[in-house]
Design brief:
alpha+beta; three-stranded antiparallel β-sheet; 3 helices; about 50% helix; about 15% strand; elongated; binds zinc ion
């Protein structure tokens, strides 16, 4: 969501490494409100998606808040994990489907080629 990702680059400084780069993308933790630069956010927390239908990023939860989760963001965190889980299930099913589909196509191709040879 818009309010979780800082686009006001000028004022933002990373609370981990202190970097203040106007060209960088900053993430604000929904729990503690600390800002994380692009490099730090990758190792300092979890990015979730807005919904299962969109690839948009939803919320950023820093590791500190994941370990000692503030009561008020727990519902948001668990709802986000649920969406992440569903995305993973869908991706797995899609992968399995693709695999089965290409196996079925290959089998049909093979049988068709076999018929050609017989004729
Ligand atoms: Zn940083
Ligand atoms: Zn936090």
């Amino acid at each position: 969501m818009k309010e979780t990702i800082k686009i006001d680059h000028v004022r933002v400084t990373c609370d981990v490494c202190g970097k203040n780069d106007p060209g960088d993308l900053y993430y604000e933790c929904v729990g503690c409100g600390k800002d994380f630069c692009w490099d730090c956010h990758k190792i300092s927390g979890l990015i979730t998606h807005e919904s299962t239908n969109y690839s948009n990023e939803g919320f950023f939860f820093c590791n500190g808040c994941i370990i000692h989760m503030p009561e008020e963001i727990k519902p948001l965190y668990y709802a986000s994990l649920r969406v992440e889980g569903l995305i993973r299930v869908r991706d797995d099913l899609y992968y399995e489907h693709k695999k089965t589909e290409s196996e079925a196509n290959a089998e049909l191709q093979r049988l068709r080629d076999q018929r050609k040879k017989v004729k």
